[in-house]
From TrEMBL:
PANTHER family: HIGH-AFFINITY ZINC UPTAKE SYSTEM ATP-BINDING PROTEIN ZNUC, METAL TRANSPORT SYSTEM ATP-BINDING PROTEIN TM_0124-RELATED. Keywords: ATP-binding, Competence, Ion transport, Nucleotide-binding, Transport, Zinc, Zinc transport. The keyword Zinc applies. It comes from the Bacteria. One of its GO terms (molecular function) is ATP hydrolysis activity. The keyword Transport applies. Part of the ATP-driven transport system AdcABC for zinc. Required for transformability. It holds the Pfam family ABC_tran. This is Zinc transport system ATP-binding protein AdcC. SMART domains: AAA. Belongs to the ABC transporter superfamily. It comes from Lactococcus allomyrinae. Residues 4-238 form the ABC transporter domain.
């Protein structure tokens, strides 16, 4: 099922075109990465897709329903999400549990299922043993991991992630990619993830959307398809270049 469908999207900063006629899609059950050189407007494309920024032209459609016909739940993890103030008053456990409130309602008591979900989320990022610590006591990489755990606790259908492994070590990053692959392939989630290192994640991702600068200095994109062993080079047919 198609969760994101973007057609001919063009975005300007002031009067300067940055993205021109970009088209891409993300379906349920797939883990898609978004790559490009530094300054390739990857975050801009994500924010425009989400409606945080408004395109000059084009159509962005995000499904309102998931594969079960229920309201689609979406989680967005921006860059530098782990920049918590040192005096942030919540414990790790309280912070991650707050991710359950949109599902239960702010005034409903959490049940055993919620407790188990939070524990699973914290264990999945290696932070269960830190559950009683105050957030201000954590390192940047640990804060990043609990932000991811909170996102998992909310149990979204669609994950949109902007360089989520910043501050993580190699083992934690690999564990995270495996977790996203599992969420997509075993639970039918859709994942769109910006990464600066496609080689690191290519063993887990199904497809890569690559932004590149054309001869006119504008960014367009094409798909690099994965066979699970690695990413193949694009054919001319796969290049969706809009001059």
């Amino acid at each position: 099922m198609r969760y994101i469908d973007v057609e001919n999207l063009t975005f300007y900063y002031d009067r300067e075109p940055v993205l021109e006629k970009i088209s891409y899609h993300v379906d349920s059950g797939e883990f898609v990465t978004l790559t490009g050189e530094n300054g390739a407007a990857k975050s801009t494309l994500i924010k425009t897709t989400l409606g945080i920024l408004h395109p000059k032209q084009g159509q962005v459609t995000i499904s309102t329903k998931n594969t079960r016909g229920e309201k689609l739940r979406m989680a967005y993890l921006p860059q530098q999400v782990a920049s918590f103030n040192a005096g942030f008053p919540s414990s790790v456990y309280e912070f991650v549990m707050s991710g359950r409130y949109p599902r239960r309602g702010w005034f409903k008591k959490m049940n055993q299922h919620d407790v188990e979900h939070v524990r699973t989320a914290l264990e999945s990022v290696g932070m269960w043993d830190y559950r009683d610590k105050r957030i201000g006591e954590l390192s940047g990489g640990q804060k990043q991991r609990i932000a991811i755990a909170r996102m998992f606790a909310s149990d979204p259908d669609l994950f949109i992630l902007d360089e989520p492994t910043t501050g993580m070590d190699d083992v934690s990053s690999s564990d995270f990619y495996e977790l996203m692959h599992h969420a997509a392939h075993k639970h039918g989630k859709a994942v769109l993830m910006v990464t600066h290192d496609p080689e690191e994640v290519k063993a887990y991702a199904d497809r890569n959307i690559h932004l590149y600068k054309d001869k006119n200095g504008k960014f367009a994109c094409f798909d690099l398809h994965s066979e699970r062993e690695g990413l193949s080079e694009p054919t001319e047919k796969e290049r969706r270049v809009h001059a």
